[in-house]
Amino acid sequence: MGSILLRFAIAAAVLLGAGAAIGSRFGSGFTPDGVPGPVDPYLVAPGTLRPTAPPSPSETAPPATQAAGRPVASPGDKTAAATVPRTGTGRFATASATGPVRGTAGPLHRYKVTVEVGSGQEPLDVAMIIESVLGDPRSWTANGSLRLQLVSGDDDADFTVLLATPATSEAICATGGLKTEGYSSCRLPGRVVLNLARWLTAIPNYGAPLDEYRRYLVNHEVGHQLGRGHEACPGRGRPAPVMQQQTYGLNGCVANAWPYINGKRYSGRAVK
Prior knowledge:
Layout: E1 7-14, H1 21-26, E2 71-74, E3 77-83, E4 92-98, E5 108-116, H2 123-134, E6 147-150, E7 159-164, H3 166-174, E8 186-188, E9 191-195, H4 196-201, H5 210-225, E10 260-261, E11 264-265
Parallel strand pairs: 5-6, 5-7, 7-9
Antiparallel strand pairs: 1-4, 2-3, 4-5, 8-9, 10-11
Pfam families: DUF3152
Keywords: Lipoprotein
Protein name: Lipoprotein
């Protein structure tokens, strides 16, 4: 991907007030991906801002339990366990990180990454993963029609990616009329809300490692932010379009994390 110049400060800034402040902070409105109801989760890539070797295929695990602090198996390692807290503090810390402009032409969309305090995740680590996904040549900048850039909390941003515990993500999504049941993720105007349980455990029977599911998750929900709607599986055995709701099942398709395959936009029939 070329050399990357990043400036990282290890501090985090508090964005949101706790609990009851969530609704007033985020306001109403929801993504053009459909009517109020479940929306999908997020994808992300390896934890670095430079290319990494693809992970080896492995079995996925059962859905994350919603019990606070209960360990759940993590796809890609049947012996590993991820602790997924059900709730956090309701406050978010911003990754103090700036990345290069990704893409060659078109309007620039600047974004920042925030992580709920109490989630057990480091904002900088999460930002590195997300930037790696959106900076990949198979992601949304591939056709030269837009550019993306990670910015720090001190800079203006066009949208924010939030990684939140199941209870907090559900509460935020509900302000836009979206019912996620603490399981899936959503996009509100200017907010891409990633469910921590999906981030840490993916979904059962996805057929690809956790890292690949995260890539799908990021590209899918950021795709909504960029104006893309849902798409259907184009046929059994074919790659799932990234805008298919893969979190709720592949419907005969196989897992795919990218909007561009072999340099061409890959999509399916639009669905409402």
